[in-house]
Sequence to fold (844 residues):
Amino acid sequence: MKLKKMLCAALSTVMAVGLLASCGGGEMQMDVSKLTGPKAYDEQIELKIPVYDRGMQGQADVDNNYWTKYVQENFGDKYNIKMTFVPITRKDDVTVFNELLAAGEQPDILFSYDYPTMVSYYSRGAFQPIDEEVLKLYAPTFYEKTKDLQEYAKVEDQLYFLTATRPLAYNWVTLIRTDWLEKAGLSMPTNQEEYVNALKKFKELKLGGENTIPATESLYNAYFPNYEYRPYPMSEEDNAMYSDITVASLTYEPTKEKLKYMNMLYNEGLISPEWYLDKDGNQKQADFVSGKAGVFGFYLSQNPPVLQTLMENCPDAKVAVLDAGASFPEGTPPAGRSDWPFGMVSGISVDCEHPEAVLMYFEWLSQEENLFVMQNGIENVTYTMDGDIPVLVDNYTGEERLNYNSNKDMWCLVTEGKDYGSDEKNLAVQKKTYAPAGFEDLIQQSYDVYKETEEYKYTDFLFNTSIESLSTYGETLKSKWEVIQVDLINCKPEEFDAKYEAACKEYLDAGYQAVLDEKAEAYAAMK
Amino acid sequence: MKVKEKTEGKIKAKTGKNGFMYYLKRDWQLYILLLFPLVFALVFKFLPLLGLSVAFLDYDVVGGFERAKFIGFDAFIEIFKMKDFYIALRNTIMLNGLDLIVGFPAPIILAILLNEIRNKYFKRVTQTVLYLPHFLSWVIIAGIFYQLLSPSTGYVNVLIQRYGGESIPFLTEKWHWLVSYCLIGVWQSMGWGTIIYLAAITGINGDLYEAATVDGAGRWRKIWYITLPCIRSTIVVMLIMSLGRILGISFERPYTLDNPLVRDFSDVISTFVYRVGLQSHRYNIATAVGLFQSVVGLIFVFASDKFAKLMGEDGII
Fold:
């Protein structure tokens, strides 16, 4: 009996301590009048900056490498700041940030490429406001470069975010095998009819062997482009309701039309037969590389060596960027989703004691000379100058080698790409950076296609409040959407309409109705 | 008088009516040894139970416990209103039930078969080879089987088609998937499961077999009348324990073997919790489902223990 009592007492003490320990912590606020502008701290402070860890093979530790030391020596030591980099698993970034928040161990800034995620952190009270005067005082260069993006940096009229700039990149390409087009006696398809016809010919002539895959497809995530069937121009309200990369707009008419089109392609055998098992796109890349497939979309880069391997497997292969109109019915403008004008969005943690030090770091990164070194490294070691264009040295493996994608995960805080001031110069750099040797023209073609269609592109609608139901139901709807898209694309054409009706009902019940209602309300409130 | 008191004291000690302090003084070394596992259980088994409070709070990681409000049973009510929860519950019971039917007897049969092997070396090598899949991660196993069983390019289906058969959708049609799921599970865990039964079989007195041989019993008879009855209590304990896990299902196996075509059957409680609770940052929902699982598991353990006792076995409680 006594033992039991003792145990009870011990247990309840431990519980009480546990509860007490989980409390604590408070809010930090800057006192503007006391600020003096950037200068070295008398006592060393620590600045914790998150950095994406992509788990790439052959890379140095993201939190301890030549370039983190470089930042320490050139920025940290100057101001008596100890720079600590906190690795954030790229694939699980939101979860990792949440875990750090739960433990009270969050770095001094939290960031995301996804604006709604940032708004959701905000609405849960994770950030402290930023005073515009303080920003100007401590980060004049950064302020100057990003002041056009202020509308995105503010939530409910208060500055909360530090938004990076996003220079245009032209490395997303959809390639078509032009040698197949030649063999089929066709020219580059410029509308949907010609495109489908070309795919049928590819299959009929078995240009990729017995199991020719005319066009590759893989399982869609929540972003399901349906611009082919959207009205143009699209009303702002529809854009607000249905343009979304967090949940698919199943009940929207253009989505239905696009699904029907995909259903036709599948039933005709014109897309990858096992597209629904290909979650990460590895299978379609393998199919294209082995020469079985005719159309393939991807981010062109030197590594992985997609085109190099294709040329090894099929020395006669020729590729070109698919015409922008190829998936559009004749007469519809080739509209599309335009990237946000901002890149990475960061916010200063509510527990950060030295927000001005964060701003000083952003300022240091933004300064032309520092950014250039962070992006290109050391002259004649990691890059050489070709005229006035820096060209990275291929496969440099010394200690000073840049981290993944030219250190991008370190400087993404202030910009999303290398910007050398003019379109021509940027294009020239991108040709050298993204295209494998001999394929520079693909970047040019991609640039041309971009310029051709630029006027028809528009961004998604941006809400200035957090749509809570998106985070509540997002994952459930994503899981439903996976099942529904497979069901609708793979079914017999005559079953499509009935299945679509049933799927819509299920989808609305699973939370999409709540999302639509909340969006409508938020939209009305903004008007 | 004095003598009497002394004797009384001795008698007292023998009948064990001394206070707790007496034993503590006498066996303090043993109690200190006991302290370690007690502290371990306290820290790693009981302290985390505090986290269950999250099920009744409006908890968010950013605010922490400080800002969480008490919401009573709201999380449970919300869960019991979700259609997907019942589907996940049904699938969990179905997959675990099938696992119990197909997967539970498999290691017993295998253990008996292994026991009958005469060549010692062959027996050991076989045993080791059969263990191996247990050490593979489900991610790898799922990868291997998706490669092997893919409908158009998988080795198995290519072979079937070459001999004139139709391609079989092993993992891409839900009923086929169910069978594949069970058999892959048996393949993975069967070898490992035999260890405990082989140990039990080793403990059987050899005289029993000799006597049976003298009586003219063959191999079947010996298995049926000696081996099986002798390991019956082990079997019952294992059964009770697996019944306790009827609602607990590993995350990796259904998640890695899943694909959108079989989501009807492959969405189980663990994947449901991952999606609705963790990925959506609704920790109270995740905790509430976990609590529900544990309570049902506990009921099953008690019920099956009672049942075992009715059957004349010892049970585990």
User: Anything to note?
Assistant: Chain B touches chain A through 34 residues (CB under 8 Å). The mean pLDDT of chain B is 87. Residues 75 and 143 of chain B are 36 Å apart (CA to CA). The radius of gyration of chain B is 27 Å.
